[in-house]
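User: Just a sanity check before I run the rest of the batch. Below are the structure tokens for the first item. I only need the designed sequence back.
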């Protein structure tokens, strides 16, 4: 594996008629396609892909993490949402954290066991199959390919090997060590080296046999609680036994004839919707793709949307989140008026006065159903803690909580934290038909990636692969209140100079493996929806167009 990452190759979009899968690992994409060919639908295939990615890309995802799902039902043309994120322990209070010596000024270290919330992934997998699946395949049918990968081994992909080593080093630098099952001769696996995880294979077998009970009760649950308690965390068996996913009503905004769907808070999808509503007040197409004017207004819209999201995104079961007000056209127009085309916003405040590493993948089946799915540990391997004999690491999603007692996202018992992972879907406003199932993983890059990839297609006429290939920016917030704009290699130096002259703090050019800052996306579009209006060719056939991000190891496959 080279230290640099070349971007010299070119991909065409994948085109097919029946079904399509796009993920960050070719082996996982192939498994998803096999499930579709066996009669499974998009939801069945998505869970098979999720399990395969838990095996092949454990530095991003796994059974010890969380997930979210958007499912498009082609018969009803309705979009359904599933929140598969876990809650904090019933015993985790702010007072308990203070007693352990942590506070807002002395925060919990990111890899500490206190950041372990109940892993929601397995319940999310089971509920996705139960609520949206075809009923033609059993859970064992769906998980068996991942079990075979775990027990039989697989060669580790290039970019995955890099992030595997990086995640192990980050844990070691923090005084931790990556738990058993994830090293070969006490080191991370190399590119092309065959890796097996028999313990994870056994865990998947128990889930296949017993469903959710196989994970949230018995041996696995006890191992999870034991390792959390042994490392000064707070979790009990009843926290696991009582866990369940939540059906949620997706939120959306309309943008020039299309409707973008996102998971509601505690997910940060609202940031993408606010940003789009702000951008609708500008003629971005006339500005030109990745021009200084376009990137300036894009960065400013993202700053404004994040300032609101950071303030109000929280668990709606515990606090009131003013979603309707934040997404109102009037409010977003007011926010757009704060944008000065010649001067960057330096300090950005929320406007309402109201009461890591991840994997993203997409599946569309031959009936036209779509499953937009995202699964994550957070911070690479999460805490790096591996329950004995289980073969997966535990997430550190509790790091998304605030320790400010006056903040809606403040840690509390049985509460879901602010979540960065978000899937997306796009439908036609008039017909309700599916246009696109897509997402871009990458912590706070995710809503920014949603906006940029969508605009690449709908404003700048790019096909799915072109939309993913194009250079991106990433706006980062740095306490106590400054903003930095990361700019990927491929954006011109004259554009960067123009942005700097307007007051932006710019880091450019980010190249090679540093491109991971801009996320890794997957897109499956139904028809050539980026052509406005759509061309009349191929009307006799429903053609799927797909792209897979060159910043990852994966691919789109179809039949």
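Assistant: Here's the designed sequence for the first item:
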């Amino acid at each position: 594996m080279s230290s640099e990452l070349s971007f010299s190759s070119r991909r065409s979009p994948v085109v097919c008629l029946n079904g399509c899968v796009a993920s960050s690992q070719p082996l996982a994409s192939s498994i998803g396609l096999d499930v579709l060919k066996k009669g499974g639908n998009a939801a069945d295939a998505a869970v098979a892909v999720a399990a395969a990615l838990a095996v092949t890309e454990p530095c991003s995802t796994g059974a010890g993490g969380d997930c979210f799902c958007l499912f498009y039902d082609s018969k009803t043309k309705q979009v359904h949402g599933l929140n598969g994120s876990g809650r904090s322990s019933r015993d985790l209070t702010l007072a308990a954290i203070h007693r352990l010596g942590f506070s807002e000024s002395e925060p919990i270290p990111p890899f500490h066991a206190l950041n372990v919330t109940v892993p929601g992934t397995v319940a999310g997998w089971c509920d996705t199959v139960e609520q949206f699946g075809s009923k033609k395949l059993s859970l064992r049918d769906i998980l068996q390919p991942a079990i075979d990968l775990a027990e039989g081994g697989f060669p580790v992909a290039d970019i995955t090997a890099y992030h595997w080593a990086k995640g192990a080093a980050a844990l070691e630098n923090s005084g931790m060590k990556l738990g058993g099952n994830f090293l070969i001769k006490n080191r991370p696996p190399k590119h092309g080296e065959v890796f097996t995880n028999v313990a994870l294979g056994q865990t998947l077998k128990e889930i296949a046999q017993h469903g959710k009970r196989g994970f949230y009760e018995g041996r696995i649950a006890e191992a999870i609680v034991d390792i959390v308690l042994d490392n000064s965390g707070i979790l009990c068996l009843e926290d696991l036994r009582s866990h369940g996913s939540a059906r949620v009503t997706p939120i959306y905004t309309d943008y020039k004839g299309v409707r973008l769907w996102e998971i509601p808070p505690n997910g940060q999808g609202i940031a993408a919707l606010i940003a789009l509503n702000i951008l609708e007040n500008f003629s971005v197409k006339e500005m030109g793709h990745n021009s200084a004017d376009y990137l300036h207004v894009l960065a400013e819209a993202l700053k404004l949307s994040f300032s609101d999201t950071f303030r109000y995104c929280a668990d709606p079961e515990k606090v009131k989140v003013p979603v309707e007000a934040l997404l109102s056209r009037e409010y977003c127009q007011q926010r757009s008026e704060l944008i000065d085309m010649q001067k960057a916003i330096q300090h950005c405040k929320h406007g309402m006065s109201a009461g890591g590493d991840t994997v993203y993948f997409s599946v569309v089946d031959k009936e036209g159903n779509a499953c937009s799915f995202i699964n994550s540990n957070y911070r690479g391997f999460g805490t790096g803690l591996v329950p004995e004999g289980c073969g997966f690491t535990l997430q550190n999603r509790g790091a998304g909580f605030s320790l400010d007692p006056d903040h809606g996202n403040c840690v509390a018992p049985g509460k879901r934290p602010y979540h960065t992972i978000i899937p997306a879907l796009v439908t036609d406003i008039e017909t309700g038909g599916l246009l696109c199932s897509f997402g871009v993983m990458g912590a706070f890059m995710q809503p920014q990636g949603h906006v940029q990839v969508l605009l690449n297609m709908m404003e700048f006429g790019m096909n799915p692969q072109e939309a993913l290939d194009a250079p991106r920016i990433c706006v980062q917030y740095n306490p106590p209140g400054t903003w930095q704009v990361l700019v990927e290699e491929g954006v011109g130096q004259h554009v960067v100079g123009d942005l700097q002259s307007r007051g932006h703090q710019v880091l450019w050019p980010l190249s090679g493996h540093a491109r991971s800052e801009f996320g890794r996306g997957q897109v499956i579009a139904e028809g050539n929806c980026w052509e406005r209006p759509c061309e009349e060719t191929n009307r006799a056939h429903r053609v799927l167009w797909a792209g897979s991000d060159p910043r990852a190891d994966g691919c789109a496959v179809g039949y």
